[in-house]
């Protein structure tokens, strides 16, 4: 039994003189390991006479508990020491700039949007946006496309099942024009607003995507004419492309919510696209029926609206030929714009 007590004393000495956690762990296995000193005593139990065995077992157990206790005490002490040292030597300079390698940037479409909003804001337009899930009413009916109107088929879209609303189904908006209705219902003329966002149609090729972005302009007051539209749009295009060598033209067209309606085409008078007329926007004078749906008196108010695709404007500005590049998430492509 004395041997066991000596073993405990020796273990205490070894543990307390260990200079590092790893030397402490070595000392631990010297006593408690598979072939450790104490383990050998435990294995020896079978050679002890039955009478002595119980007492022998008790003593070994209490030695084992004590050795473990000592071990834990010194493990704690060493860990604390280690922490102190590392706090002293590994000082963290919190005033250093971050080490982030991959700086994000604005998506080219969002760059275009910010540019356009700035341009219109500078000439007094309010800036808003609206929900992508619209009602059938705002997207079509209030914009003078009643149910079964053939113009609806130009805007085939994604409908959302809703068994509670049977005659005003939610859908993914096909254009930003429903914001004309929303905005005019809460704001009184003069109305001068730019709205933008994602729109959805069943279309997919190198120049069409089922989701794309539009920017919509609306100006309603007592004396607004097509020449205001022309002035505003030409100014926008020239500032946007940073060139005065651009002309625009209005080509007769049809939209249910404008009358008369037009497509706006632009032509560059220099550069790589010189001489090609490019369709850039739908536009027109707000249809009197739409003014009524905005709760405005068509005898008193008149205005214009236009809707342009942000993808197209971005492609022209940067010389991009495939619209799908915008949505592939290819870092090499996107990096060029940051
Ligand atoms: N909403 C039309 C479209 O998406 C564009 C447009 C807007 C036309 C405003 C006229 C006036 O095609």
Automatic annotation (TrEMBL):
Family matches, as InterPro entries: aa-tRNA-synth_II, aa-tRNA-synth_II/BPL/LPL, Phe-tRNA-synth_IIc_asu, Phe-tRNA_ligase_II_N, Phe_tRNA_ligase_alpha1_bac, Phenylalanyl-tRNA_Synthase, tRNA-bd_arm
A single GO cellular-component term on record: cytoplasm
Cofactor: Mg(2+)
UniProt GO BP: phenylalanyl-tRNA aminoacylation
Subcellular location(s) per record: Cytoplasm
Catalytic function, reaction form: tRNA(Phe) + L-phenylalanine + ATP = L-phenylalanyl-tRNA(Phe) + AMP + diphosphate + H(+)
One of the Pfam families matching this protein, by short name: tRNA-synt_2d
Cofactor descriptive note: Binds 2 magnesium ions per tetramer.
Protein residues bound to Mg(2+): 259
Keyword Metal-binding: yes
Major localization listed first in the record, in broad terms: cytoplasm
Record-annotated Aminoacyl-transfer RNA synthetases class-II family profile domain positions: 116-316
Keyword annotations: Aminoacyl-tRNA synthetase, ATP-binding, Cytoplasm, Ligase, Magnesium, Metal-binding, Nucleotide-binding, Protein biosynthesis
EC annotation from Swiss-Prot or TrEMBL: 6.1.1.20
GO molecular function: ATP binding; magnesium ion binding; phenylalanine-tRNA ligase activity; tRNA binding
Similarity comment: Belongs to the class-II aminoacyl-tRNA synthetase family. Phe-tRNA synthetase alpha subunit type 1 subfamily.
Subunit structure: Tetramer of two alpha and two beta subunits.
Protein name: Phenylalanine--tRNA ligase alpha subunit
Source species of the chain: Candidatus Profftella armatura
């Amino acid at each position: 039994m004395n041997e066991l007590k000596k073993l405990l004393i020796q273990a205490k000495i070894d543990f307390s003189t260990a200079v590092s956690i790893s030397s402490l762990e070595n000392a631990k296995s010297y006593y408690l390991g598979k072939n450790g000193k104490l383990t050998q005593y435990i294995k020896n139990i079978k050679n002890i006479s039955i009478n002595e065995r119980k007492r022998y077992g008790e003593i070994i157990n209490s030695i084992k508990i004590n050795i473990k206790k000592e071990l834990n005490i010194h493990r704690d002490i060493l860990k604390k020491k280690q922490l102190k040292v590392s706090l002293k030597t590994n000082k963290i300079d919190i005033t250093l700039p971050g080490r982030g390698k991959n700086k994000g940037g604005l998506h080219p479409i969002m760059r275009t949007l910010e540019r356009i909003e700035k341009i219109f804001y500078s000439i007094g337009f309010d800036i808003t946006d609206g929900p992508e899930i619209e009602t059938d009413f705002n997207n079509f009916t209030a914009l003078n496309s009643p149910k079964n109107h053939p113009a609806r088929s130009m805007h085939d879209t994604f409908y959302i099942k809703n068994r509670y609303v049977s005659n005003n189904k939610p859908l993914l908006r096909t254009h930003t024009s429903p914001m004309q209705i929303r905005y005019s219902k809460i704001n009184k003329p003069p109305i001068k607003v730019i709205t933008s966002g994602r729109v959805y149609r069943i279309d997919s090729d190198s120049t069409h995507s089922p989701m794309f972005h539009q920017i919509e302009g609306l100006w309603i007051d007592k004396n607004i004419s097509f020449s205001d539209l022309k002035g505003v749009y030409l100014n926008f295009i020239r500032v946007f492309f940073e060139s005065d060598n651009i002309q625009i033209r209005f080509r007769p067209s049809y939209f249910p919510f404008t009358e008369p309606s037009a497509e706006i085409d632009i032509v560059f008078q220099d550069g790589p696209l010189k001489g090609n007329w490019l369709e850039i926007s739908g536009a027109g004078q707000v249809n009197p029926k739409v003014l009524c749906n905005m709760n405005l008196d068509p005898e008193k108010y008149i205005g214009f609206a236009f809707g342009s695709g942000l993808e197209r404007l971005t492609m022209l500005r940067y010389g991009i030929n495939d619209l799908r590049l915008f949505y592939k998430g290819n870092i090499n492509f996107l990096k060029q714009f940051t």
